[in-house]
Specification:
mainly alpha; Endonuclease III, domain 1; 3-stranded mixed beta sheet
């Protein structure tokens, strides 16, 4: 009987099927859809001080509670709406984050091209990083610091460099699956792989 081995994945990915599905199908895949980018932006803000797992478990509940992340509807949230959301036990009940959701929706709608703004930190192309392990992956980056400054200037909240780095990773602006993960090979492409027996120092490569 053949022995099967688990697929090698990034160390942060747990064995939970929901987490595995997110890692295997979404995290690090280039995302350009404006609505999808807005959803991740809002969810990353709710993650501040928490684990991504706590957000992922509640993602469907957030979609139901927050009008499927429609920025036009969220921009019109009233104080009474926020008070109602504070009673919703299926989401993260944090008044500052809920108020920031309304303000961020308003700021998002003021942008001419939100997707282009987010991708501008890598000149519109995925920047592939070659990290040997999760210990090499930084919590922030020059790209996330630049995006944070831009978003704060545009009126966004909960968009510090660490949150923005997570946003860039999740949406494939930065491809940071580690080199021992099977998704690294799929998303970086053969041209980004080291030669047999070689182990390059962490670097970058632009795709697109």
């Amino acid at each position: 009987m053949a022995i099967t081995f688990p697929m090698p994945r990034c160390d942060w990915c747990s064995t939970d099927p929901l987490y595995i599905h997110y890692h295997d199908t979404e995290w690090g895949v280039p995302m350009h859809d404006t609505n999808a980018l807005f959803e991740i932006l809002i969810l990353e803000g709710f993650q501040a001080g928490l684990s991504w797992w706590s957000i992922l478990q509640r993602r469907d509940a957030f979609r139901r509670a927050l009008a499927d992340f429609d920025p036009h509807r969220l921009a019109r949230l009233s104080d009474a709406d926020i008070e109602r959301l504070m009673q919703n036990a299926s989401i993260i009940r944090n008044r500052r984050k809920l108020e920031a959701t309304r303000g961020n929706a308003q700021a998002w709608l003021r942008l001419t091209d939100p997707a282009a703004l987010i991708w501008s930190v890598t000149e519109g192309r995925t920047r592939v990083h070659h990290y040997a392990s999760h210990h090499d992956v930084p919590a922030s980056s020059p790209e996330s610091e630049a995006l944070s400054r831009t978003l704060k200037k545009a009126g966004f909240r909960f968009v510090g460099p660490t949150i923005c780095h997570s946003l860039l990773q999740a949406t494939g602006v930065l491809m940071e699956h580690t080199m021992d993960c099977f998704r690294y090979r799929e998303l970086a492409g053969a041209s980004a792989l080291p030669s047999a027996g070689a182990c390059p120092a962490p670097g970058t490569k632009l795709l697109g």
